[in-house]
Amino acid sequence: MEALFAIAIGTLTSCAVYLLLRARTFPVLLGLTLLSYAVNLFLFASGRLVVASAPLTDQGIEHFPDPLPQALVLTAIVIGFGMTALLVVLALRAIHATGGDHVDGGER
Amino acid sequence: MNHLPIAPILLPLIAGSVLLLSTRWPATARHAFSLVAVVAQLAVAITLFVTVKDGPIRVYALGGWAPPFGIVLVVDRLAAALLVLTAIVACASLLYAVARDTETSAPRFHALFQFQLLGIQGAFLTGDLFNLFVFFEVLLIASYALLLHGLAADRVRAALHVVVLNLIGSALFLLGVALIYGVAGTLNFADLARVIPALTIADAPLARTGALLLLVVFALKSALLPLGFWLPRAYGAAAAAVAALFAVLTKVGVYAVLRVYPLAFGPQAGELANVAEPWLLPLALATLVFGALGVLAARSLRIAAGWIVLYSVGSLLVAVALFSADGYAAAIYYLVHSTLASAALFLVVDLVAADRTTAGDRLDAADATPHGALLGSFYFVSAVAVAGVPPLSGFVGKVLLLDAAGAHPAAALIWSSLLGAALVVIVAFSRAGSAVFWRTVPAPAGAPAPPRPSLAALAAPAAILGCVAALVIWGGSATAFAQATARDLANPAGYIEAVLGGDHAQPDDRRRLR
C-alpha cells in the first residue's frame, strides 16, 4: 500500500509542476489544486499508514493511526480551499484588468 | 492563569470581525474604532514587553492542554519586542491611511488591516510549527487582499505573482512540517529541540530535508534571493500605508529563521547541527548586494523603497547567518531599526509623490514640489536612517553587525559586501533626492498646486522616525536588550525548560504511537 500511496503522490505532484509551468492562470490554478492534494496526502502519511484498525486508540490495540496528522490535514484542506477560492477570483479579475490570462498580464 | 498573552490575537480578531459588520457606520466611527483597536494592541504589547524584558518567559497553554500536546503561545523577549514593533508600525500606518483617506476605495480596509495584524502577531507568539503555518496563511490572505485593494491593473498583476508563489510556498511548508513530524513525532518548538538531537542516523536525512524545505519557505517569505524578485514590484504597487505595514511582513520570515534554527537545529542538534548555515550566508550576501543594486537601478521612488526592503532583509540575514550570540544581537537591533526605517520611507515617498503633480514618484525632471523644504527634510531623514549613516540607528546596527562578523572566517567578504552595498544605497538615495527635489522645471502656469499634507499624515512618518531616533538616544539599553535576547536564542535551555518544564506529560507517552 505504501508503494501505491507514494506513486499517487508522485503522479499528482508531477502533473502539478507541469501545469504550474504553463504560465496561464487557469492551468496554474489547477496545478496548485493538484499540488495541495499531493501535499495533503503526504501530510496524512506522516502519521504512518495503518489498515484495519480502530481510528483512535483503544485498550489492547497495538497498531493504531496517529490522530494528529488527520487534524493537520483537515486544517490544511480548509486553508487550501480558501486560498484556491481567492485565486479563482483573482484570476478572473486579472483577465478583466489586464486583458489576458497570462500570469504576467495580457496576451503573450 | 493570566490571559494577557492571547490578547494580541483576540483583540484584532474581535476588532476585525466587528469592522466587517460596520458597513453602515459613518466613516469617522470606523476610523476611530480601528485606531482605538491598534492603540489597545500597542498597550497590550508594551505590557507584555515589560513583564518579560528581564528574562521570565510566559507560556500560555490554550484550553489548559499541557505542552507538547496542546497548542501553546510563548512570549519571550524576542516575541515581545516584535509585538511592540508591529504595534508601533501598525499605529503609524493606520494613522496615515486615515489621514490620507486611502480607505475610501475599499470599504473593508480596516477589517483586513486588523486580520493582517492577527496573522503577524499570532506568528510571533506561536510555540509550534503547525500554528506558525496557520498564522502565516492568515497574514498572507489578509496581505493579498490589502495588496489588491483598489484593484488597479498593476496591483492585480503584482498580486497574482505573490499569491501563486506563496501558495507554492505553503505547499512546501506543509511538506517540511510533514517530514519533521514523521520523524520527530512533534511540532512544538521546544519539544523539537529535545527530540531532534536524539534522532537516529536513519531518520536524520528526512529531518534534514524537512528543515531545508522550511528554510526555502522562510526565504520566500523574507524575500531572500533567489526567491525575492516578486517583492519590489508588489510593495511598489501597494498603497503606502499597506506597504509600510508590509515592512513587518518580510521580518516574519526572518523571525521564523531566528526562532526555529538556533532552537531546534542549532549546534547542539547532533546529526542536524547547523543545517541552515552553509546556505544562509551566501544567499544573504547575494540578497544584500542585489538589493542595493536594485535601489540604484530603480526608476521611481516606490520601487526603490521596495528594493530597500530586499537590501535590509539581506543585511539582517547576514547577521542571522553568523549563528553566534553577537550575530543574533546585531540581527535583533537591525531588525527593529530596518522595519521602522523602511516603513517611514514608504510613507514619506507617498507624501512626496502626492506633492509632485506631473511626475508622481518617477525620478524625472518635473515641476518643483511646492512643499519641497518640508518633504525634503522628511526624505533626507528617512534616507539617512535607511542608508545606515550616522547619527541615526542604522549606523549603530551596521557597527554591531560588522563587529559581530569580525570573527567569522568569511569576514573580509562580509565586510566588503556590507560596506559596498551601503555605499551604493547612499549614492542611489542622493541621486534620487537630487532628481526629485533639485532638478526641477518651472510649473505650467495656472496648474493647481497640491494642498499641503495634513498634520496627521506628517505625524505618522514623524512618529516612526522618532522611534528610530529613540533607538540611538537610548542605544545603550536597546543594545543591552538585544544582547540579552541573543543570549536566550543562543542558549535555548531556558526556553525549553519554560515550555516543557513542570509535570507535563512526558514524551514517552507519545512514543507509544510509533
State the order of secondary-structure elements of chain A, H for helix, E for strand: HHH
Q: What is the CA–CA distance across the termini of chain B?
A: 33 Å
Shape of chain A: elongated
Q: By helix and strand content of chain B, what is the structural category?
A: mainly alpha
Bulk shape of chain B: globular
Query: Structural class, judged by helices and strands of chain A?
Result: mainly alpha
Assembly state (oligomeric): heterodimer
Low-confidence stretches of chain B: 507-514
Rounded mean pLDDT score of chain B: 86
Tell me roughly what share of residues is in helical segments of chain A.
55-70%
Q: Can you count the helices of chain A?
A: 3
The SSE order of chain B reads HHEEHHHHHHHHHHHEHHHEHHHH
- Mean pLDDT of chain A, as a whole number? 85
Q: Report strand % of chain A.
A: under 5%
Radius of gyration of chain A, whole Å: 18 Å
Bin the helical content of chain B: over 70%
- Summarize the main sheet of chain A: none
What is the strand arrangement across the widest sheet of chain B? 1-2
Tell me what you see in this structure.
- The complex is a heterodimer of chains A (108) and B (514).
- Chain A is elongated, with a radius of gyration of 18 Å.
- Chain A has helices at residues 2-20, 25-45, 67-98.
- Chain A contains 3 helices and no strands.
- Chain A has one domain.
- The mean pLDDT of chain A is 85.
- The termini of chain A are far apart.
- In chain A, helix 1 (2-20) packs antiparallel against helix 2 and helix 2 (25-45) runs antiparallel to helix 3 (67-98).
- Helices cover 67% and strands 0% of the residues of chain A.
- With 108 residues, chain A is mainly α.
- By secondary structure, chain B is mainly α.
- Chain B is 72% helix and 2% strand.
- The radius of gyration of chain B is 22 Å and the shape is globular.
- Chain B contains 20 helices and 4 strands.
- In chain B, the strands form 2 sheets. A two-stranded antiparallel ribbon of chain B has the order 1-2. In chain B, strands 3-4 form a two-stranded parallel sheet.
- The longest helix of chain B is centred in the N-terminal third of the chain and has 32 residues, at 153-184.
- Chain B has a domain at 278-442 and 453-493.
- Chain B has helices spanning 7-20, 27-52, 77-100, 109-125, 129-148, 153-184, 189-195, 204-221, 230-237, 240-264, 277-297, 301-321, 325-355, 372-387, 393-405, 411-437, 455-473, 475-490, 493-500, 507-511; strands at residues 58-61, 72-75, 366-367, 440-441.
- The chains are: A mainly alpha (108), B mainly alpha (514).
